[in-house]
């Protein structure tokens, strides 16, 4: 019993160590855009290519791109930004499958704990762009929506790319969550549904041009 408690205490210190190290390495990053999406969508997939284009468009505007550092959509976004002078960042994590670090990272950080990685996804974000993906992608989407909804972070654009993929979910929110009183209709305005990378980039750029930004606390 005592040994288990000691292990838990050391876990807290390991989390703290990851947090300090990650914060320090991204300290000078400034405003960035975090991109999420499925690890299983390879370079033959159109959403991979859209993510790559988005990374390039943002990089050309000197806006760093942050991803989870893995394959699929993450690789696409990193790859597009990596081809520009702007930093391409990957926040990698140790997982039993799917998480192979992609080679398009100027800054590559490795994490054991999701909690630290999630904090750093948000800290520098002036926008989240969400491409099609699985459970992890949905987790990040709804966490971002909750943080903005509850004013735990300064509001920023949360953009869903790919109308055919996301439309059913949006309609379910309207037909079930709003209709049953679980959400207000206004809360559906916390995110925006777009068709492609160009539209997503324009939303981000418009947001950046009208505001002043500091890291989220």
Automatic annotation (TrEMBL):
- Which Gene Ontology CC terms are recorded? cytosol
Query: What is the top EC class of this enzyme, as a single word?
Result: hydrolase
- Presence of keyword Hydrolase: yes
Q: What is its EC number?
A: 3.2.2.n1
**Which InterPro entries does the entry link to?**
LOG, LOG_fam, LOG_family_nucleotidases
What keywords would UniProt list here? Cytokinin biosynthesis, Hydrolase
Swiss-Prot/TrEMBL catalytic activity: AMP + H2O = D-ribose 5-phosphate + adenine
Coiled coil located at which positions?
none
Biological process, per Gene Ontology: cytokinin biosynthetic process
Q: Recall the GO molecular function terms of this protein's record.
A: AMP nucleosidase activity
Identify its protein family. Answer: Belongs to the LOG family.
Q: What is this protein called?
A: Cytokinin riboside 5'-monophosphate phosphoribohydrolase
Q: What is the lineage of its organism?
A: Bacteria, Pseudomonadati, Pseudomonadota, Gammaproteobacteria, Cellvibrionales
């Amino acid at each position: 019993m005592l040994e288990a408690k000691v292990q838990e205490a050391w876990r807290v210190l390991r989390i703290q160590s990851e947090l300090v190290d990650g914060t320090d390495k991204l300290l000078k990053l400034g405003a960035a855009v975090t991109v999420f999406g499925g690890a299983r969508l390879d370079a033959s997939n159109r959403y991979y290519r859209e993510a790559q284009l988005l990374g390039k468009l943002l990089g050309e505007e000197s806006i760093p791109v942050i991803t989870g550092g893995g394959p699929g959509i993450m690789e696409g976004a990193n790859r597009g930004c990596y081809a520009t002078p702007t930093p391409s960042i990957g926040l990698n994590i140790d997982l039993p499958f799917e998480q192979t670090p992609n080679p398009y990272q100027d800054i590559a950080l490795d994490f054991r704990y999701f909690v630290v990685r999630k904090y750093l996804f948000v800290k520098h974000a002036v926008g989240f762009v969400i491409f099609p993906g699985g459970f992890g992608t949905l987790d990040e989407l709804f966490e971002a929506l909750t943080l903005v909804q509850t004013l735990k972070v300064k509001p920023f654009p949360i953009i869903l790319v790919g109308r055919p993929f996301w439309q059913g979910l949006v309609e379910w929110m309207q037909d079930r969550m709003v209709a049953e009183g679980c959400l207000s209709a206004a809360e559906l305005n916390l995110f925006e549904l777009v068709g492609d990378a160009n539209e997503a980039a324009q939303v981000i750029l418009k947001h950046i041009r009208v505001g002043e930004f500091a890291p989220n606390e």
